[in-house]
């Protein structure tokens, strides 16, 4: 059995370097294995050299008018600059000079300090007299194109051969055909301009081989043969083929009018592989795209041509390879000998020995020719391929670890959340998202009349008791009612009767169905008796002014209704905001009612009651009928509605149309009154500025009206299960990132990008009224990622594996 070296290049490339390179050397005779880690620096100049090699290769063959097995001209990379002198003066010396320069640069790159430990251990552990399979794992198409066999290592080890492999693979089912001959399915496709008869003669003369030829077949015929019950050992194709510019896929031309991709043959090829297909040979041009797709099907061995291949080179390689392979050489040595023999025709066909490239599945042992002829061995006698530490079963185990870590972290995060440990963080994150929302227009259905410090000094206020004298209030209400507002809300405490000198004011307060006044519910826990409404206002036109503060004092909730104590100074069940909104909507023919599920319904809108746990709220008092307060975002210098002062009204500066059919709220904004409250917008302003109570009530009235009349969304949250799934999804995402990205810098950047996406989604949803768990998701993402990274480092230390 040959020695195996698997060189995993990770996720890097020539432009960004290869920060995590792993060489794995299993011992063929013992369970011991050796793993060495290293890195490779950036080397974009290697890619430039290879592109120049490609260009000169193309120009040389065009100049010699040599027939190649390609149906369409190869598109030239847009990054390559072509000098006219290159086209007219290209010669063999230029080509060989670039070839030598590319070979030397690859040697220098692989001699770099970060890779030296791997190189040193390869020379130390491997015997140059033994056969060695070197499999390079990478998903980067540019790295796959490099002539790896020009590396000095392969010059020092004459029985070593290099193959390519994707990063992900899995062992196939070991199946041997019962036939006594090697079964070959030979597809001779579109032969326009090329000679594939030579290929056919070579296959016909093979000893111990049963070859079925499909000459320019139709797709249906080819599909039927691939499904043959006896199975095939070797699949051979000769004709025209091509690879997409990005290297991701290829196609073969099976006849003059039809071309197929591997994807179009996927089911049939899977069946052929399941029935024992071991080797695919594509003796045609630009085969890397075909090999990439076939590798995804886990076919054990493949041979393709990396560039456009001249007709004679394709024929000579097939002859040399089949001679060596059928003569008893191992697969890898047969490929190397055949490739090296092509050097003898490079006088006519420059670069011929660089064209063949093999793909192998590291989990499979390459068969010899005689293996195809033997009777099936028992499972106990058949050679079992040595498994690399990272095949599918290991990847599945890694996925299970990620899954377990994500579930564990999600459970811990949601458990801590349920105990209220994250509540303050979530509320601060909520405030920040709310402040970022774009501003909305003011609510034109409202007008706010403010009592300022200057209004305290008005002549009408000389005999004031409290914030507003009877005289000033009488003239204000007289003026406002003459303008026909729809409702008037008096956000000023007046728990005393009107002075006997103002009988008209008393009558107005008692009889006008437009005027609503506030009271304050008693607080037993705080030993506050409460404040009653003006005695002239009947209970049905009273509204409580109580606001619900969060533990940090910020107003984020809207208390719509409650069941007050009958003996309380304030016995009304509805808030002032609800009374005013319901009055306005009643004039629109819209009634408020409670459903049989005790949910408040206004028109078609259900105001879903806040009941903890709900969103970021886990440990708060949710008594009464509370909802989340969806503030109308406006600049702090421009309140939710038009604002005028008491003096503006009394002096006639406000036109009637500014009042008609509106809800008018009257409240004090003078700093000396102290009726100010912190809101989510307070910390985000140029200066920390609290919101006057009358403006807070205006926000609440606007929320109800906008939800019912404008379909403006109320704030909503998912169910507990929905939020848990959301958090778990981000936890799982963080774990997968940490599992797949080994480079710390890239992982940090990817993690930062993931957090940015999470924040962006949370902001987008809050703009639509959705409050989703931002802090728990971010915490779960980060903690899961850290735990997976820590676990991966621990798992690197395993028995039977030594690290150098």
Short note summarizing the structure:
With 804 residues, this protein is α/β, with parallel strands linked by helices. Helices cover 36% and strands 17% of the residues. The strands form seven sheets. Strands 5-4-1-2-3-28 form a six-stranded mixed sheet. It has a six-stranded mixed sheet with strand order 7-6-8-12-13-14, sandwiched between helices. The chain has a six-stranded parallel sheet with strand order 18-17-16-25-15-24.
Tell me the layout of helices and strands.
Layout: E1 3-8, E2 18-26, E3 33-40, H1 44-64, H2 84-89, H3 92-110, H4 113-125, E4 132-137, H5 141-145, H6 152-156, E5 160-165, E6 182-188, H7 197-204, E7 209-215, H8 219-226, E8 234-238, E9 240-243, E10 250-255, E11 258-261, H9 266-274, E12 279-283, H10 288-295, E13 301-305, H11 311-326, H12 331-341, E14 356-360, H13 392-418, H14 423-436, E15 446-451, H15 470-482, E16 487-491, H16 503-511, E17 515-519, E18 542-544, E19 557-561, H17 576-586, E20 592-594, E21 600-602, E22 605-607, E23 625-628, E24 642-645, H18 646-650, E25 663-668, E26 676-677, E27 691-692, H19 693-709, H20 720-740, H21 744-767, H22 774-795, E28 801-803
Parallel strand pairs: 1-4, 3-28, 4-5, 6-7, 6-8, 8-12, 12-13, 15-24, 15-25, 16-17, 16-25, 17-18
Antiparallel strand pairs: 1-2, 2-3, 9-10, 10-11, 13-14, 19-23, 20-21, 21-22, 26-27
Helix pairs in contact: 1-3, 11-12, 13-20, 13-22, 17-19, 20-21, 20-22, 21-22
